[in-house]
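Hi all, posting the design record for the shared folder.

TITLE: backbone redesign
STEP: 1 of 1
STRUCTURE INPUT:
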């Protein structure tokens, strides 16, 4: 079941940001949720591979990864050692892959709900923030994947752990079917992944509809629909918290994107005042 919640007040956003649970075992507050922000309420949960290759995504995936590994070898010589590393590096550099970006930070998720489109469209439609429960997702995994998590005393898989469980995509797809998926913690290959608090969902090829999977197999998933009237307020609040392109995309590109938005002049203002 997917719970849909409409955010129309800034207080509701602040409550979402502060959502944590007290863990008596460690005497600290923790969250088991991951978030994914999308800048348009009409967008559907899918992968860049499916968006790019449509119904041919299964047959073209191997060719994409094979050619990426071949031509990227001079910069990433270890790519051919692991298909999981191929996916991560490829996704990081814009390659169409089956990976889906998630973050541990609701603030980062909100950033992507309020950026990545023409600024003039910000008040024309709402945004989306998805929330999934890591523990709930892990309970859907095959037994040996759950055992691997318990042995490592962790809630998220690493490349090394996956290499021991599934050496290729065919093995992974056979293990997952259409009823489960792995949540992967990528290696800290650069500052961008670190700053974005990034994680990946590895979507199995048999999962034809991600949102239907979440509706059928989970009970803690929430789809927050951010009212269009709130988007600029959230956007400016995030800037005050230093959640912006300058921080999320370290380097001159991120700096320029942040300055472009920071000095954007909205239409319809009386600039003579």
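Okay, here is what came back for every position:
SEQUENCE:
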């Amino acid at each position: 079941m997917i719970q849909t919640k409409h955010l129309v007040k800034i207080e509701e956003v602040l409550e979402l940001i502060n959502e944590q649970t007290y863990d008596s075992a460690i005497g600290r507050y923790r969250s088991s949720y991951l978030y994914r922000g999308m800048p348009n309420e009409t967008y559907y949960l899918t992968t860049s591979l499916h968006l790019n290759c449509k119904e041919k995504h299964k047959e073209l995936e191997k060719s994409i990864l094979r050619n990426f590994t071949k031509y990227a070898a001079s910069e990433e010589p270890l790519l051919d050692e692991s298909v999981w590393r191929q996916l991560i590096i490829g996704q990081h550099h814009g390659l169409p892959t089956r990976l889906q970006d998630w973050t541990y930070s609701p603030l980062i998720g909100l950033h992507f709900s309020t950026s990545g489109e023409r600024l003039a469209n910000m008040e024309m439609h709402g945004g989306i923030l998805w929330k999934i429960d890591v523990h709930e997702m892990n309970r859907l995994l095959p037994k040996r994947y759950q055992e691997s998590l318990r042995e490592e005393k962790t809630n998220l898989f690493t490349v090394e752990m996956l290499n021991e469980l599934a050496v290729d995509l065919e093995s992974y797809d056979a293990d997952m079917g259409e009823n489960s998926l792995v949540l992967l913690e990528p290696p800290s290959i650069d500052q961008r992944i670190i700053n974005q608090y990034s994680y990946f969902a590895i979507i199995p090829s048999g999962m034809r509809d991600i949102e239907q999977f979440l509706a059928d197999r989970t009970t803690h998933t929430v789809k927050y629909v951010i009212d269009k009237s709130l988007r600029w307020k959230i956007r400016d609040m995030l800037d005050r918290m230093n959640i912006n392109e300058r921080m999320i995309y370290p380097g001159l590109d991120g700096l320029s994107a942040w300055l472009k938005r920071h000095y954007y002049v909205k239409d319809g203002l009386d600039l003579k005042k």
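COMMENT: The first helix runs from residue 10 to 17.
Let me know if anyone wants the other runs.
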